[in-house]
Fold these 2 entries.
Entry 1:
Amino acid sequence: MPRIVVDVMPKPEILDPQGKAIVGALPRLGFTSFSSVRQGKRFELTVDGEVTEDILAQARDAAKTLLSNPVIEDVVNVEVVEA
Amino acid sequence: MTELPLIGEAVAVAAEPRLAGARIGVVTFPGTLDDRDAARAVRLAGGTAVELWHADTELGDVDAVVIPGGFSYGDYLRAGAIARFAPLMSKIIDAANSEAKLPVLGICNGFQILTESHLLPGSMIKNDHLKFMCRDQVLRVENSNTAWTLDYQAGQEITVPLKNQDGQYIADEKTLDALEAEGRVVFRYVGFNPNGSRRDIAGISNAAGNVVGLMPHPEHAVEAGFGPESLDGIGGSDTDGLGFFTSVLTKIVGGDK
């Protein structure tokens, strides 16, 4: 089954409190090379059958209306992944 | 639901029979926590509380709606994001935007639902300190002309409980400037900003003033003995939140300020 992967990230200008907590925890485990972390979301939408242009457009629409909140987040990627 | 008095003299304002004709809907989503308290606050203020279910397809005969706090749909995806698409919400959105301008109050998760519904601008993200916080919070009423604040004085300070994890109000600078210029910042945190909200904003309204959302919980400060107390020196009283509910009843029965 092909899947459509949608990646959503907090907008760059918005402080990401979760990312900040993670970057604070990394050095405690000895990971000292990372100066910043931002945490986003990955959605996998499974399609029964072929991914047509129409279905891909629907996924983009869903990404904008439900999967992300444009006030605080950006949809950074929508792509088809074959199983 | 007629389980009103838990303690003596609970009914403080319910003397006016004309108020009882005002019907305030209280919406329950899967995961809503504070619907019972909100309904109780409506009754203590003298109105009639009407239970509404998220899957209802009709609003029925209600004069105003309270969207209470909690964790609708477990806060999955984003707080309020899935509730926004519940069948009843589209009816509420239409009614709030209609000529009749249905008064709508969103408390905590209800506020998050109203921003996800685009009835109010901006959004809420995690508290800047990342912790769930529960405290008695002092607020300043900045606008006493909304449907839900008529019974307060502008500049009045009230104390109500605050309890949330995703309570940091954010919007872009242009939106914040517009909210300030139009008097739509209805409540501001006083003394301590508990979540990093921009410009200490605790609650806002739409342009018409019929839709109000805030993070703190006025419905938990409506009866003596059960609200914030003045013992810890922060002032206020146990019943500072009751004014939200008396305000909308006054508005509905036509007694303008």
Note: Chain A has one domain: 3-81.
Entry 2:
Amino acid sequence: MQSLDERTVLKRVFSYVLMAILAVIILAPFFIGIWTSFLPTMEIAKGNMFSTNVSLDNYVAAFTRTPILRYLGNTVVIAAVTMIAQLIFCSMSAYAFVFLKFRFRKTFFTLFLVTMMLPFEAEIIPNFATIKQMGLLDHFGALIIPFLTSAFGTFMLRQSFMQTPAELKEASDIEGLNHFQFYWKIVLPYNKISMITLGAYSFLGAWNQYLWPMLTTFSNNSRVIQNGLKQLKSEETFNDWGMIQASAAIIVIPTIIVLFIGQHYFKSGMNEGAVK
Amino acid sequence: MSKYKKLALPLILVLGIVLIAVFGKALSAKSAVKDNRTEVVFWHEMGGPSEQALVKVVDGFNKSQNKYKVVPKYQGSYDEAIQKILQTHNTSTSPAVFQAFDISTAQMLHSGYTTPVQNFIDEDKYDVSKISAVARAFYANDGKQQAMPFNTSQPVLYFNASLLEKYGITPPPVSPSYSDITRVAKELYEKSGHKVKGMTVQVYGWFLEQALANANRQLANNNDGHTGNPTKVNVNNPDTVEFLNWIKENIKAGDFIDYGSGANAGANQTAGFLSDKVGIFIQSSASMGQLSKSNKNKLGITYFPHPDGKKANGVSIGGAALWISNDKPKDVQRGAFEFIKYTLKPEVQAQWQKSTGYLALNKDSQKTDILKELYAKNPESKVPGEQLAHAKANFSNSGILMEGMQLTRQLEEVAMETVYNGGDIKTALNTADKNINDNLTQLNKANGFK
């Protein structure tokens, strides 16, 4: 008995040590990044990481000397609209694939999946040509319209909707709910967790876009945050690394907030199911 | 709680719509505000502190006259901007004047999307003799000025003068040979008790090309592309071998430190230099601002080193030039040229050099108070400008007018890296030659050049 206890304790100690080491490895770059954002650029250029010359100057400079607030605003609008649109359109199409019976349903769904197999980078040239012809270059439309829906979102929600008990559908038919009522009042609340997951996923996806906005935006008025970060760096001359690092820290904050909110909902959703 | 949840979705929706309305309006308002000035859209790739300096130049131009209004728009890195310029040509978003970097010159020229600035120079009888000849030659073809050099830099050699003083080492001459640098590097390494590495040369194709230019050797045939489209590249030549042998000798002696390639290598070697880990390195003259501002040591600068027993031919330039698009009406193009002329004024160039570290191209800039004060404060900051003024333009030091330079540089860097890691020089250069030529043949075929 005694020896067995020791073994479990050892095992536990070992796994905690291992997890601690992994946590340090994974979090170290993040904390180094945050730490350097408080250091003056000269200390960073010299590789002097343990300087005690800490201040908020870099953050003040980032907010006052660059249009980072404008970029944050642009990105919030684009990411929010993309997220809402994806939630609406993906859930509606997923609903059709699960609850409506029509011919070629499977074929259409396969077609949907095919578009998912193609990486976005492969569609850049045709998409760019389309946007150019529509005259949407350097416009919010160019950053939103190609992402109004996503095959992955439909796929994910379809899998989730399929888990909805058939009894609910039958019960709602007896109650006389039409498709839209059933969708809005039963399917969506029932699949709240998947919806929130997709929402967080699409928001972060839009937030972290780099290549597409880089190609289609041409001025500060429509630029998004990731490209704005690139703008803080000059090609060949002196760089203000401290301010760049501070800006990077600023633009990470919203994504962390989204993740925390998502996690909170995710947890409460799981508990609800378990208690019932 | 549930009430709050019900409200959440519509609230977000409304908020989103309001935000779009506000920002959308701001967007359209921007184009609605118009005085009778002709708008000249200017695309550039100057980020960070250089962007602030550039905006000042633009503001200065807009205040200096009331016919044209230049609108600067940042486009991303040099490479990205090239694609954007080519892909948006003939649309309403395209620029009237744009900044394109050195190695895209052939691509821009062949695109047929630009109006040679020579046309306007002839019209105005504008005197270009004041503008650095080496810089002009880089962007000229068939004796016609295609674009006007703007932000220009040259590679120079930086050394830590304080360290040399401390260990009693004679500094290298202002135009050093390879063996001059080897001597200093070795002495520094030995006398510091192996604490300070002597030198480094970043794995960067630009430096290899500059070593050839300085040795008066052409990399591509047809005079580096200045008298016809290049069809053959010859990296494996005695001058490249001598350059790489120089580096190899120092690697063997142990006084060389390799920081690798890419932008991080540049940042790391600067950090190494500033923290006394390495005594000598080669970098763009544009880095000078950073090196003199945050350096507790005395900074020494010399010209780019040249092979022993040969006269330095002078290095070519790097940086970017201003081009005029031909898809805009005459008066807009005229405005673009007026802006270009403004950027080349002695005072504007002097201020540009002072605030960015790029070199002033107008010879009269040296006489302005702005640069005189700068030189009085940091006498060594004179050196890069002197190197530029010293060089006489010929085909070897006027850049390589060839498409596909981006890939060529990558392949040159592969060869350099192989040698740094102990590989055989001849084999590495032969491989580079073969791959560069294969790529060139393919490019020429694709473009329909003979």
Note: Chain A has two domains: 2-57, 67-231.
